[in-house]
Amino acid sequence: MIYPSTSFITQLVSVGTMAALHLAACTTNFKIQEHFNDFADAWVKDVVTGMPEVDNADGCFPLPQGPGLGIKLNEDFIAAHPRKDVFFDLFSKDWQFRQGKSNEA
Q1: Cα angle for residues 29, 34, 35 (degrees, 5° grid)
Q2: Is 63 within 8 Å of 21 (Cβ atoms)?
Q3: Cβ neighbours of residue 105 under 8 Å, at least 6 residues apart?
Q4: What is the tens place of the pLDDT at every residue in 18-58?
């Protein structure tokens, strides 16, 4: 039987990346994990503790060692920064600076 290579892409930093790493670890034909962690706002890393970084020597994430996803949610930080309903126009100049307008009127 032939198993084509599989790659996973996650734009969900921290929790989404860890879930994708778990899926990759148990997928026979897994080849590459694409992620956008390096492009996330700096504060995003404060949402969890225990998030591994890509190893510069081999370009790979280490597999999680803790229970569950291997990370712990920082619930105090999350409570202090509630979700905002923001719209980003991906076709506008400098959209990547996340200066989107709120959808609230």
Answers
A1: 140
A2: yes
A3: none
A4: 888 888 888 888 888 887 777 777 788 888 888 888 888 98
Q: pTM of this prediction?
A: 0.68
How many residues does the structure list for the chain?
105
Buried-exposed string 32-52: b where 16+ CB fall within 10 A, e elsewhere: ebebebeebeeeeebbbeebb
Going along the chain from its start, the domains and CATH numbers come out as 6-102 (3.20.20.120)
Q: What is the DSSP annotation of 14-66?
A: THHHHHHHHHHHT-TTEEEEEE-GGGS-GGGGGGEESPPPPBTTTTBPPPP-S
Let me know: does 28 contact 3? Beta carbons within 8 Å.
Answer: yes
- CA separation, residue 91 to residues 47, 52, 87, 96, 104 (Å): 28, 32, 12, 10, 21
